[in-house]
Amino acid sequence: MLKKAILAKIKEQGGRFSKIRSKIIDILIKEKCLVSQKKIIEKLAGKNFYPNRSTVFRELNFLTENNLTVKNNILGVDHYEISEDHHHHLICLSCKDIKKITLPCNKLQESEKQISKENDFDIKNHLIGFYGHCRSCQRENNKK
Question: Does pTM top 0.85 for this prediction?
Answer without folding.
Answer: no
